[in-house]
Amino acid sequence: MQFVSRDQWGANAPKSDYTYIDSTQGVKVHYEGTEVPADLMGADHHGRCAGRMRDLQASHQANQAEGYIDIAYSAVVCPHGYVFEGRGAHHLQAANGPGLNRQHYSVCAMVGDSGLTQPTDAQLNGVRDAIEWLRSAGDAGDEIRGHRDGYATDCPGEPLYAWVQAGAPRPGGSAPAPAPAPAPAFPAWPGRYLRNYTEGGDVQTIQRRLSERGWTITVDGKYGPQSERIVREFQADKELEQDGVVGPVTWAAAWTTPIT
Ligand SMILES: [Zn+2]
Ligand SMILES: [Zn+2]
Description:
single chain; alpha/beta; Lysozyme-like; Muramoyl-pentapeptide Carboxypeptidase, domain 1; six-stranded mixed sheet; two-stranded parallel ribbon; 7 helices; elongated
């Protein structure tokens, strides 16, 4: 499983404590439902996915009517097959509908009702990965259902719902499941924002990483104007916010995005 922790995608803290749950009957599958840009699935566009997560979390946390404390889902899966941690295992989620949230966890695919409407094979594998993760880490039962099971909604859309009804098979039919890939190994974000005038081993680490990725950057542990310029260029390349500062998202992108 290619797992992206909350720290790695730059999640805000929940607005209040989660409700602990021991186990569930299983997992319900969702889609975003609104338009998802068709080109999000492009191999070079994974750099946008963490930003989509932050937007999704912000919109849920701002939703006064629902009173969400956090992103509603247990996990979200991008078209590149990465599993983004939502509320996670053993936490009550809030996506399945009133009275239905304790029975199942929720996994949302970044698929819409226009634009990107068909899940990619990598994404179906990722949804499967997320379900298996919630079974092993969160004591989810065997059921795999759609949001529309028990609640009046189109979610998760026809293609995903047909897949759910088929038992959520990994693409490729009876082929053995690919061995779970270890989460990308990269050093943890140092916990401080690296910007102009910052110095230290952590500055050297990001400089070395960008240099390994082909950027012309001096690896001297001193965050000067050149580092700032190269970080801006890297952020532009990955369609991240171009602030020239290395926060958790830019840091993670230096290890997790494809080298182009
Ligand atoms: Zn849904
Ligand atoms: Zn992605």
